């Protein structure tokens, strides 16, 4: 189970996301996970080996390293990426549950069910409406929370986003105060700022997606309120059902379904 | 045979699990196995190399490391994850046995569709219910045993910075310093927390199955 497997799991969620959600997922995989695996891990690879202290006292280097780097940047980023990816699984679970319900209806021979085929149920793309809208919005909300928490944790733990070249350490067993030198501080600062920047872009994308979903929700409600004032109820229900069926046909037109009559 | 293969094997079991079982499997793969592979193995990667003792005596570092770390955390977690995943295979075997029986009946002339048989979702009833319950029970036992072993072996869940060692050939008592103790403590507590969450999910699943069967039983009698 590694980043590739996470990519497979989240790829499935992609189908049910908005366009902004798809962009977010792409940014996550290419500009964060891939950068982490391909570049950042090599930069931090020798972080303890090349952490050098100006002393012969055994144990001083270990203790100073542990004091200044309680959790390595790489591990914090790995945890951040895992936590930020996971809310999307709520959406995947909800979609799987809906599919399961529809399959159950289909098997029972329910006449309300519009599907002729189990394959069609499997390939159907669900619209973000009703309870799925709430699940989707909560997942974006949790993503935002996790991103913000980790960014704050970084800032708090390392007193900013800059990696210093020199640290002065006086933890036991170091004799008095000892100078310790960090390995590759400039490269680490560059990557830290890069990851923070992409993190902020992801936060902006999530906020934009949240606004988009809220706007869509309010527009839909005002359209329904407007329509119900103009027309009698039962005609409206049939028309909206017809509209939904037409939209479903056009949405799933890439599936090889032997259509259903209106 | 690695974690990916285990995922493939257990993915098949997923189809016949309850919803709580599916959540448990997701938590296992994403918050335990993935964290182990992607993060924890790097943290413990240099554990012996950067285990430093304040002595020039040859062999002292080796002996002290072996004394304080009889089995590394990483290996214990790997064993725990394998043991905890394995009871699900009991369920997979039972389901495969049922399918095999149905195929045999089909071949003997009964009218059953083979394609439908392959894709059929088998309900957790009868003997399969007992197999499923036992598998959850064993999972809980294994989790508890490993959590206790961790606690017993390392005197708690905190990784000390300094360990004092007087095993031969170390002269008198020697200070030895552990590599990355804070990061190791953080990950130990994290893995323990997720282990606790998995145990609670298993208990919830157990309760759910027991309640379901009691309700079905009472419906039949009324």
TrEMBL record, chain A:
Q: Where is the Connexin cysteine-rich domain?
A: 146-213
Q: Where are the transmembrane segments?
A: 23-40, 77-97, 132-158, 191-214
Q: What is its main location?
A: other
A single Gene Ontology CC term: connexin complex
Q: Pfam families attached here?
A: Connexin
* UniProt subunit comment: A connexon is composed of a hexamer of connexins.
Ranges of biased composition (kind: Basic and acidic residues) = 232-244
Q: Which family does it belong to?
A: Belongs to the connexin family.
Task: Identify the residues that the record assigns to the Connexin N-terminal domain, covering every copy.
Answer: 42-75
Coiled coil spans = none
Q: Which domain of life is it from?
A: Eukaryota
Please give the name of this protein.
Answer: Gap junction protein
Is Membrane found in the keyword set? Answer: yes
Q: Which GO terms describe its biological process?
A: cell-cell signaling; gap junction-mediated intercellular transport; sensory perception of sound
Keyword vocabulary terms for this entry: Cell junction, Cell membrane, Gap junction, Hearing, Membrane, Transmembrane, Transmembrane helix
Gene Ontology terms for molecular function: gap junction channel activity
UniProtKB/TrEMBL annotation, chain B:
Q: Which GO terms describe its molecular function?
A: gap junction channel activity
Record membrane topology: Multi-pass membrane protein
Domain Connexin N-terminal intervals: 42-75
Q: Per the UniProt record, which residue ranges are transmembrane?
A: 23-40, 77-97, 128-154, 187-211
Report the locations given in the UniProt record: Cell junction, Gap junction; Cell membrane
Which InterPro entries has this protein been placed in? Connexin (IPR000500), Connexin_CCC (IPR019570), Connexin_CS (IPR017990), Connexin_N (IPR013092), Connexin_N_sf (IPR038359)
Which Gene Ontology terms of cellular component type are present? connexin complex
Single GO BP term: sensory perception of sound
Where mainly found? other
Classification via Pfam families: Connexin
In what residue span(s) does the Connexin cysteine-rich domain sit? 142-209
Source taxon at top rank: Eukaryota
Q: Which UniProt keywords apply?
A: Cell junction, Cell membrane, Gap junction, Hearing, Membrane, Transmembrane, Transmembrane helix
Q: Establish whether keyword Transmembrane helix is in the entry.
A: yes
Q: What does this protein do?
A: One gap junction consists of a cluster of closely packed pairs of transmembrane channels, the connexons, through which materials of low MW diffuse from one cell to a neighboring cell.
> Could you describe the subunit structure of this protein?
A connexon is composed of a hexamer of connexins.
Q: Give the matching PANTHER family.
A: CONNEXIN, GAP JUNCTION BETA-2 PROTEIN
According to its UniProt record, which protein family does this protein belong to? Answer: Belongs to the connexin family.
Tell me what this protein is called: Gap junction protein
Q: Which gene encodes it?
A: Gjb2
């Amino acid at each position: 189970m590694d980043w590739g497997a996470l990519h497979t799991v989240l790829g499935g969620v992609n189908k049910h996301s908005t366009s902004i959600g798809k962009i977010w997922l792409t940014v996550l995989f290419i500009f964060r996970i891939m950068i982490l695996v391909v570049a950042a891990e090599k930069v931090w690879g020798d972080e303890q080996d090349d952490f050098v202290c100006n002393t012969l006292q055994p144990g001083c280097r270990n203790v100073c390293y542990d004091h200044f780097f309680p959790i390595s940047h790489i591990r914090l980023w790995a945890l951040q990426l895992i936590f930020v990816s996971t809310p999307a699984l709520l959406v995947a679970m909800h979609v799987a549950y809906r599919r399961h319900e529809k399959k159950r209806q289909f098997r029972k021979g329910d006449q309300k069910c519009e599907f002729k085929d189990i394959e069609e149920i499997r390939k159907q793309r669900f619209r973000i409406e009703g309870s799925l809208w709430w699940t989707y919005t909560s997942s974006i909300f949790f993503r935002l929370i996790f991103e913000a928490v980790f960014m704050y944790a970084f800032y708090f733990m390392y007193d900013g986003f800059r990696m210093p070249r020199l640290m002065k350490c006086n933890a036991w067993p170091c004799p008095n105060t000892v100078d310790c030198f960090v390995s590759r501080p400039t490269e680490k600062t560059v990557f830290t700022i890069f990851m923070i920047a992409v993190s902020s872009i992801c936060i902006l994308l999530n906020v934009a997606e949240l606004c988009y979903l809220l706007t869509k929700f309010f527009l839909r409600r005002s359209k329904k309120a407007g329509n119900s004032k103009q027309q009698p109820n039962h005609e409206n229900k049939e028309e909206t059902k017809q509209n939904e069926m037409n939209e479903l046909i056009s949405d799933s037109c890439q599936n090889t379904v032997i259509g259903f009559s209106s | 045979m690695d974690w990916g293969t285990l995922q493939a094997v257990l993915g098949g079991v997923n189809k016949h699990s309850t919803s709580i079982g599916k959540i448990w499997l997701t938590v296992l793969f994403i918050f335990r196995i993935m964290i182990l592979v992607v993060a924890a193995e790097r943290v413990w990667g240099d554990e012996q190399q950067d285990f430093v003792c304040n002595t020039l005596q040859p062999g002292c570092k080796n002996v002290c490391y072996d004394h304080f770390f009889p089995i590394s955390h990483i290996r214990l977690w790997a064993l725990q994850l394998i043991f905890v995943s394995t009871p699900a295979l009991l369920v997979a075997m039972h389901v495969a046995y049922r399918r095999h029986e149905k195929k045999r009946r089909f071949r003997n002339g009964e009218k059953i569709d083979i394609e439908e048989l392959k894709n059929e979702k088998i309900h957790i009833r009868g003997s399969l219910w007992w197999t499923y319950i036992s598998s959850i029970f064993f999972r809980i036992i294994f989790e508890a045993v490993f959590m206790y072993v961790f606690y017993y072996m390392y005197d708690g869940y905190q990784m000390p910075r300094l360990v004092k060692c007087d095993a031969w050939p170390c002269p008198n008592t020697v200070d030895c310093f552990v590599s990355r103790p804070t990061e190791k403590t953080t990950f130990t507590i994290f893995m323990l927390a997720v282990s606790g969450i998995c145990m609670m999910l298993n208990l919830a699943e157990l309760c759910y199955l027991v309640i379901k069967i009691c309700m079905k039983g009472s419906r039949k009698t009324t």
